[in-house]
Amino acid sequence: MMNLTLKIWRQANANAKGKMETYQMQEVSPDMSFLEMMDVLNEELIDKGIDPVAFDHDCREGICGMCSMFINGEAHGPDRLVTTCQLHMRKFKDGDTITIEPFRAKAFPVIKDLTVDRSSFDRIQQAGGFVSVNTSGNTQDANAIPIEKHDADKAFDAAACIGCGACVATCKNASAMLFVSAKVSQYALLPQGKVEATDRVLNMVNQMDEEGFGNCTNTGACEVECPKGISLENIARMNREYLYASLKG
Amino acid sequence: MALDSKIPKGPLADKWTKHKSNINLVSPANKRLIDVIVVGTGLAGASASATLAELGYNVKTFCFQDSPRRAHSIAAQGGINAAKNYQGDGDSTYRLFYDTIKGGDYRSREANVHRLAEVSTNIIDQCVAQGVPFARDYGGLLDNRSFGGVLVSRTFYAKGQTGQQLLLGAYSAMNRQIGRGKIKMYNRHEMMELVVVDGKARGIIARNLVNGKLERHSAHAVVIASGGYGNVFFLSTNAMGSNVSAAWKIHKKGAHFANPCFTQIHPTCIPVSGEHQSKLTLMSESLRNDGRIWVPKKLEDVKAIREGRLKPTDLKEEDRDYYLERRYPAFGNLVPRDVASRAAKERCDEGYGVNKTGEAVYLDFAAAIQRYGKEQAHVKGLDENDAALVKKLGQDVIRAKYGNLFQMYEKIVDQNPYETPMMIYPAVHYTMGGVWVDYNLMTSIPGCYAIGEANFSDHGANRLGASALMQGLADGYFVLPYTIGDYLADDIRTGTIDTDLPEFEKAEASVKAQMEAFVNNDGTHTVDYYHRKLGKIMWDKCGMSRNTKGLNEAITEIKSLREDFYKNVKVPGSTGEFNPELAKAARVADFLELGELFAKDALERNESCGGHFREESQTPEGEAMRDDENFTYVSAWEFKGEPAKAKLHKEQLDYEEIEVKTRSYK
User: Fold this and answer.
1) Taking a C-beta distance cutoff of 8 angstroms, is the pair B73, B81 a contact?
2) For the sheet containing B58-62, what is the strand order?
3) DSSP states along B295-318
4) Domains along chain A?
5) Where are the domains of chain B?
6) I need a surface site. Which of A29, A76, B24, B150 has the fewest CB within 10 A?
7) Which residues on B lie below 8 Å from A125 (Cβ)?
8) Is B337 a catalytic residue?
9) What do you get for the CA distance between the two ends of chain A, in Å?
10) Helix axes B527-542, B580-604, angle to 10 degrees
11) Distance between CA B251 and CA B435 in Å, rounded?
12) Phi and psi, residue B466, nearest 5°
């Protein structure tokens, strides 16, 4: 069992001025997940008549991409290849002070406490993150076009992005290049995506810039913090796609 | 009101094709005049939204999460079934239909299930066209694997993230329509009430979760795609936010709720570790392709393992009880979920559970690692007798197939499943029961539809693995978009529904009153306190094994817990702000009603079938025993003011094509 000091960002709403508050936690089990520890804190706060800490979470198995905490200066905390919900308290030790902040970026405004608005990611996808095929079911047989296993696997690896925004929160420029390039890469690697490749990359990058995300300066921090191990190769691929599309356009 | 399932006449295999040709259509010009609301953005809701928008309707879609991409379909792991017969192993539409009816223990509708099997192949074609990266073999063609309860390989997959890839496919189809302005998306909005005007569903009251404002939204039809109600058990593999509220609200407005007691307890989940537990994590059924399930044969070995004196890997083959292979030689480790779960419970109840709590069995990959390792060594021309090499090569194969699941297990349990067997135990996973719908997927409220897990239609008393994704997408892409036109054809001259109608005003006022009552209650216990208590009653008395005494107790206990909740629940904050506790309170209030109906339904169904096991109805070997003479029907409950007064309507199930038999996997 561990005793911990938590320093948590509290902000009543988007327009309020936020600040760090300190809370003590007793008897934390190392088998708890980080969010279960937060659940216990919130139960205690409610009992004391203090407003509980608002944080986003849903599936609690690392796939929905909703949880989004910046823990001790790292997106999703000190463990690698996990989201906050999969981080377990055994990664901390008795007496630790843990700092918890929201994912910060101009394009991710705070809604309350640790909850941020990531709808900018949706808008980027709406600009071109799809194949324009109607859902009639009257397409050709799924096995009509064989796809080389290597390409299919790489497309899958890119498509594994959960859209959590850790890449943005980690980047000193708050760049969304890893997120956008993952989607662009998935389709660039598959024959189905080739038809619209030019418009897709131009439109998605354009929307990314409009949302106020920063530029990529190749520090690679995003890849380190990405809970799904999305590779920097995708950014290189998107840059090639973008250059090609710009010349063609 | 009598139940009319509206199953078309004619031979089973022709029903859907003929029905599609016979139903009314809405012209493209008129579709522009018609609004449709979709609640929920999982596979069913997202695919329906995208397709309805493509057809030309004005769609408004709602989800409580911060993005439609977060819906819990995203967490489905193993795969999606389709009768493509790419493996040439004898699969067909009929076989998928037959397996699903049998898997559901003869408690589902033949016509619906046949339609599902028919459209299953379109789903795969559609998803590939959308760029969903399914697993492929070295020839570049789609790969398949096997799931429980079937003898063919018909499951398509994308590693252990099939749900994610299919949902992102449907989300991308939605995004295309959002970009075109045909779908208006409302993130972080929760449906609080259905608005019924002149007997027809005409809109909803939604709450904007960011600022707490109540909003009126009107439409010519309302589609509920809000998923299942597994979270009535508090601990389940569902997401934290998954809830019954949208389905329950329409139930209270007149939609019958069918077979609420049909719940799937999934055999392979990570066991509970302590009191703080907030949810349970599934380990995909696909693991049973390669994992063998066992417990020690001797109780002294169990004791030694629990006390840490003996490692499972040190136990000799002859001291292990591979109880599924022993009891069910034909299907072995790939028996259906209900059978596997009960068998695990039986062993643990007898004292053979292998963890501290006594509620865990092993899922062991050592044999598969050996088998694959030898195969790889042979293929690569390496030494098949080099144990270390074989193990490494075998582990690589397992990693490629299930890497993300093994990683997830290791993070949660802090043990390496490549080296030591996984520990697993059954957990609540899926609900076959749900809103009653007719063949057109319309509920008993005209203009109100229910699709995906939210309805009851296709899985009977037990769902087969990899069929939930199939049903969600079938309903959303290929069924509802046709059938809804038949209803909407009468609405082409109606015009926009006015949200100033008194029905909207009244619905909004009732929601407002409920929200204010919660924050002003000044109680003593948190929402979770009640939710945990409810979950414990459900698990102990309405879980894997049910009996008259326990169910009667559950009904009384849930009712008094509900009364206590309204008196003593404490909800912090105000109604006009981002207040997750308030949202949770409203959801738990609905679970506290549903739980009682659930127990009532389980009590009424005095037979065992599929996931519903009544101790009073079992064979001498402890297998579930159906009572076809008395219970071959769907229980559809009509709300009458409170769960205790719900009125039962029976939809008799007629089997024309399939001979109803005792389900055996031996």
Assistant:
1) no
2) B183-186, B58-62, B35-39, B221-224, B448-450
3) EESSHHHHHHHHTTSS-GGGS-GG
4) 2-112 (3.10.20.30), 119-134+145-248 (1.10.1060.10)
5) 31-263+429-491, 266-428, 501-631
6) B24
7) 171-172, 175
8) yes
9) 61
10) 20
11) 7
12) 70, 15
Tokens, residue B581: 């506790």
Question: Catalytic residue among B327, B337, B546, B562, which?
Answer: B337
Q: What is the ipTM of this complex?
A: 0.98
Closest CA to A55 of A67, A45, A70: A67
Interface contact B581, partner A, CB < 8 A: yes
Listed in sequence order, the DSSP H helices in chain A are 34-47, 119-128, 149-159, 166-170, 177-188, 191-194, 197-210, 221-225, 233-248
Q: Find the CB nearest B273 among A31, A46, A58.
A: A31
Looking at domain B31-263+429-491, which CATH architecture does it have? 3-Layer(bba) Sandwich (3.50)
Predicted confidence (pLDDT) per residue in B140-179, tens digit: 999 999 888 889 999 999 988 999 999 999 999 999 999 9
Stronger pLDDT, B665 or B392, i.e. the higher one: B392
Cα B453 to Cα A14: distance, rounded to the nearest angstrom: 36
CA distance B213 to B71: 22
Note whether A142 contacts B: Cβ–Cβ < 8 A: yes
What does the block give as tokens for B69? 């991409």
Q: Which of residues 71-90 of A touch B (CB under 8 A)?
A: 79, 81-82, 86, 88, 90
Q: Kindly identify which residue of chain A lies nearest to residue B180, measuring between CA atoms.
A: A126
* Helix axes of B502-519 and B580-604: crossing angle, nearest 10 degrees: 100
User: pLDDT > 70: what percent of chain B?
Assistant: 100
pLDDT of residue B40: 98
Identify the residue among A28, A33, A46, A64 best suited for mutation to test binding to B, counting B beta carbons within 10 A and taking the highest. A64
Q: Tell me if A135 and B477 make a contact (CB, 8 A cut-off).
A: yes
Q: What global pTM score does this model have?
A: 0.97
- Tokens 């707490």 found at: B212
Distance CA A62, CA B408 (A): 8
Axis-axis angle for helices B162-179, A149-159 (nearest 10):
70
H helices present in A31-146, as ranges:
34-47, 119-128
Arithmetic mean of pLDDT over chain B: 96
Domains B31-263+429-491 and B501-631 share a fold: no
Structure tokens at A249: 């356009």
CATH code reported for the domain at B501-631: 1.20.58.100
Residues paired with A98 in a beta bridge:
A6
B84 contacts B93 by C-beta, under 8 angstroms: no
CB B394 within 8 A of CB B371: yes
Question: Phi-psi region for residue B150, left (φ > 0), alpha (ψ -120 to 50) or beta?
Answer: beta
